[in-house]
Specification:
Structural class: alpha+beta
Distance between the termini: 34 Å
CATH class: Alpha Beta
Radius of gyration: 17 Å
Shape: globular
CATH superfamily: Histidine kinase-like ATPase, C-terminal domain
Bound molecules: adenosine-5'-triphosphate, magnesium ion
CATH topology: Heat Shock Protein 90
Strand content: 15-25%
Order of helices and strands: HEHHEEHHEEH
Largest sheet: 5 strands, antiparallel
Strand order of the largest sheet: 1-2-3-5-4
């Protein structure tokens, strides 16, 4: 007969592998929840370790931007075919001079090195950003694909 602890773990695993995960980002702990949700989905997609780490760094950067500049927002993780798509959305003040920031210029409002967005753009396979200074907030969509080429680099 299985003991209760084993049963509890099984229930948690079933919930956390849902192909869509939405999390409100309001505290630092929510950032770790988002990483954990993405990790389960990446295991399901059989991502290699290098790509998993790139996704985790990207989630950390984009969630920290929400916490630093907008107070709160949402994180959505979806699996479609061999792709992991992550959407970060907030209703904060928006980003001024986005093009320059993506080209490496540091914002005067920066609370860090000013390299977060440019770094995420480089780490992920797809990067899209929409931002509005008139109350529309900021929406970032990124994707990591488990392509044949990426699988060849697997090291686990
Ligand atoms: N969600 C957001 N809402 C409003 N402004 C943002 C948001 N994300 C980024 N910004 C603005 O864009 C700038 C650049 O963000 P980026 O993440 O590239 O660097 P940073 O946060 O300044 O520093 P780092 O990420 O290296 O610690 C920020 O300084 C901030 O002014
Ligand atoms: Mg940042």
């Amino acid at each position: 007969m299985p003991f209760p602890f084993q049963k509890k773990v099984m229930v948690m695993t079933t919930d956390s592998t849902k192909p869509i995960q939405k999390i409100t980002i309001q505290t630092e702990d929510d950032l770790y929840l988002a990483i954990s949700a993405a990790r389960h989905l990446m295991n399901r997609l059989d991502f290699n370790k290098v790509d998993q780490q790139k996704v985790i760094v990207s989630i950390s950067e984009l969630c920290r931007n929400i916490l630093n500049y907008s107070e709160h927002g949402t994180f959505l993780a979806e699996v479609t075919g061999n792709k992991l798509r992550l959407t970060f959305e907030d209703r904060g003040p928006g980003i001024e001079d986005l093009d320059e920031i993506l080209n490496g210029r540091k914002s005067p409002l920066s609370k860090g090195l000013g390299m977060g967005l440019a770094g995420v753009k480089r780490l992920m396979d797809y990067f899209q950003i929409e931002t509005s200074r008139e109350g529309g907030g900021t929406k970032v969509i990124v994707e990591k694909w488990n392509t044949c080429e990426n699988r060849k680099r697997r090291n686990d």
